[in-house]
């Protein structure tokens, strides 16, 4: 069985429409996992993919968070290559271990899953193929950068297959399938390591990037960042523990840096109190103590010194 799959759905019956189309196009070997009620009720996705013989490829973009509801997902004799382009993708192993992949990562995983989930606005591509096609010595999931030449070639070939599959004859389908397998082996063959050591720095960077965009948000916290990245607070804490500095310390330092920049801005219009409020310090006294602890001077002294130095120059 081979053919293309396409769905762009949202609204009350979106999940039913998607599930019907998936079953008719992808078939039993790639059965759709059951999803939580919250996922079904808010289902909104764009999906493009294909099945070619015993392989499946799909590009999946979800507007809302999603999570499966069953205890077991997938087949024991499958290997999956996930390529995360945006957002965050999370999955669990039957033994209880959970892994999170932020944008820019390739993951390779063999066998069944306990569940998977995605943060809102996540874009991920997944290739599923027989485990025998991608033999690996690793018993754990592995991760590497998604920007390698091998991964780019794999996704480019998959895009071409998706555009032409419905017009290919049997020999063309066989060739498309064989090339996918070869490129999957190349993508999974180098630059990978056990998933946790490599994903921790990537997860920490994703958290810092998110925090940087929300420094003026009063609701910003390590717990809020963990929720938005669809990981547990403990997972995020472990990622930062390897760097020796918690996310809360990073947020505080970045707010001080932005407040300092505002203090010395030419022709600034905000008072010290207004700057303290904008960068989410409880009051000007709290801001002054934190600023002095970091820069060695009060905000007023720092701004006055910067102004004198500017005038002297």
Explain what the structure shows.
This protein starts with a strand and ends with a helix. Strand 2 and strand 3 form a beta hairpin. The mean pLDDT is 86. It has 2 domains: 187 residues, Jelly Rolls (Sandwich), CATH 2.60.120.10; 113 residues, Arc Repressor Mutant, subunit A. It is α+β, with helices and mostly antiparallel strands and 313 residues long. The longest helix is centred in the middle third of the chain and has 20 residues. The strands form 2 sheets. It has an 8-stranded antiparallel β-sheet with strand order 1-2-3-10-5-8-11-12, with helices on both faces. A 4-stranded antiparallel β-sheet has the order 4-9-6-7. Helices cover 44% and strands 22% of the residues.
Overview features:
4-stranded antiparallel β-sheet, 2 domains, Helix-turn-helix domain-containing protein, 8-stranded antiparallel β-sheet, Homeodomain-like_sf, Jelly Rolls, single chain, alpha+beta
The Rg value, from CA coordinates, equals 24 Å
**Outline type:** elongated
The proportion of residues forming helix, as a percent range, comes to 40-55%
What's the rounded overall pLDDT mean? 86
- From the 3D coordinates, which CATH architecture of the largest domain would you assign? Sandwich
Give start-end ranges of low-pLDDT stretches: none
Sheet bearing the most strands, described? Answer: 8 strands, antiparallel
Strand content: 15-25%
Q: What is the total tally of β strands?
A: 12
Query: What is the CATH homologous superfamily assignment of the largest domain?
Result: Jelly Rolls
Which class of the largest domain in CATH terms? Mainly Beta
* Strand ordering within the main sheet: 1-2-3-10-5-8-11-12
CATH topology of the largest domain: Jelly Rolls
Order of helices and strands: EHHEEEEEEEEEEHHEHHHHHHH
- Tally of separate domains: 2
Distance between the termini: 75 Å
**Given the structure, what is the number of helices?**
11
Structural classification: alpha+beta
Domain HTH araC/xylS-type: 205-305
GO molecular function: DNA-binding transcription factor activity; sequence-specific DNA binding
InterPro entries: Homeodomain-like_sf, HTH_AraC, PchR_regulatory_protein, Tscrpt_reg_AraC-type_HTH
Keywords: DNA-binding, Transcription, Transcription regulation
